[in-house]
Specification:
This protein is mainly α. It contains three helices and no strands. This is PLD nuclease N-terminal domain-containing protein.
């Protein structure tokens, strides 16, 4: 359980940084994950992935 709590925000941040978003959505997601690591990561994987730009 501790491993998941530690790794999930890191994986979310890597995914956010590697992808393109419209406007300032990338910055907003990084801040959400940094300030609310567990909740922000879960929110990103459910809602944020839909906001990414298609390559």
């Amino acid at each position: 359980m501790i491993l998941i709590v530690s790794i999930l925000p890191i994986v979310a941040l890597i995914d956010i940084i590697q992808n393109e978003f419209t406007g300032s959505n990338k910055l907003i997601w990084v801040l959400v994950v940094l300030f609310l690591p567990m909740f922000g990561s879960i929110m990103y994987f459910f809602m944020g992935k839909d906001q990414r730009l298609k390559r």
